[in-house]
Amino acid sequence: MPISARYVLMASMDVDPDKDAIFNEVYDQEHVPYLLEVPGVLSVTRATAEPLAMMLGGERREMPFEGPRYTAIYEIESPDVVLSPEWAAAVERGRWPSEVRPYTRNRQHKLFKVS
């Protein structure tokens, strides 16, 4: 599906292996639904990194994975969305702040303007 928003926020991170199950449960059942209630958040898509081999210059190339394992892609109306009181409240709701966030690491947040 094509991106329809003007901006995309990508939030990437790793999680301690023994917290993987609760990370995915809370992300899917609480964190994403809460953030979808924030005005200006249009969609959220989660992705998990996988190994990659591809053809480049006529030969197969193995692409070593570097970076966080998990990424959430937020389609948002503007950069102001993530500065809003609604966003600030949503990211502190549920079990995320106490049962998940402390076990995440290698966190990266990137904002892209869609051309």
Which tags fit this structure?
single chain; 115 residues; alpha+beta; Alpha-Beta Plaits; four-stranded antiparallel beta sheet; 3 helices; 6 strands; 38% strand; flat
Structure notes:
The chain is α+β, with helices and mostly antiparallel strands. It has a single domain (7-113), classed as 2-Layer Sandwich (Alpha-Beta Plaits), CATH 3.30.70. Helices cover 24% and strands 38% of the residues. The protein contains three helices and six strands; from the N terminus they run βαββββααβ. The chain has helices spanning 20-36, 85-90, 96-100; strands at 7-15, 41-48, 52-56, 59-63, 70-76, 104-113. The strands form two sheets. It has a four-stranded antiparallel beta sheet with strand order 2-5-1-6, covered by helices on one side. A two-stranded antiparallel ribbon has the order 3-4. Strand 3 and strand 4 (59-63) form a beta hairpin. The radius of gyration is 16 Å and the shape is flat.
- Give the strand tally: 6
Helix % is 10-25%
What is the residue-averaged pLDDT? Answer: 96
Q: Counting H and I runs of at least 4 residues, what is the number of helices?
A: 3
Q: Spatial order of the strands in the main sheet? A: 2-5-1-6
Poorly predicted runs are none
Into which percentage range does the β-strand content fall?
35-45%
Q: Tell me the span between the first and last alpha carbons.
A: 16 Å
Q: What structural class is derived from the secondary structure elements?
A: alpha+beta
Corresponding CATH architecture: 2-Layer Sandwich
Describe the structure concisely for a colleague.
The protein has 115 residues and is of the alpha+beta class. The chain is built from three helices and six strands.
